[in-house]
Request: fold
Amino acid sequence: MLVACASIHGNTAKAAAKLAEILEAKGAKKVVLTDLARCDIAEAVEDAFRYDKMVTLCATYDGGLFPCMEEFLHHLKSKAYQKRKVALVENGSWAPMAAKLMRGIFEGMKEIEVCEKTASIRSAMKADTVKELEELADELLAM
Ligand SMILES: Cc1cc2nc3c(=O)[nH]c(=O)nc-3n(C[C@H](O)[C@H](O)[C@H](O)COP(=O)(O)O)c2cc1C
Reply:
């Protein structure tokens, strides 16, 4: 599966790396990690289509999504990304919004099942973040 993050300062990217480790430890067959702010977006889009499951992790940015995530999701939508399972992780220091916004975008795509649980990080990972990531991984792997 693909774990795609959009991180300004690196905290969301750290959570993405931790989640990839958790997914592998729980038996996910192949986990590919991509940092949308630092990779070739076309390759990330290709990877999204290669796997049946994906996790998107995004920092909240001026009440919206960090733009590289917005661009990534826009590409997926315009290429009819569908029939897949998705899990969401957000980051935000005072009013995290990214999970709600990403859910709204995925709702506009066909047959995308989004995990009910989301993990919400306040600035940087803490002990309870790992628990949230573990629970999210369990839900996604069971889908
Ligand atoms: C330009 C800018 C805008 C931001 N806007 C918001 C915001 O609207 N709401 C919020 O909760 N946090 C906001 N933040 C805080 C980031 O979401 C927060 O620092 C987060 O931990 C960033 O994760 P990162 O380390 O992966 O970049 C903003 C940060 C920056 C630099």
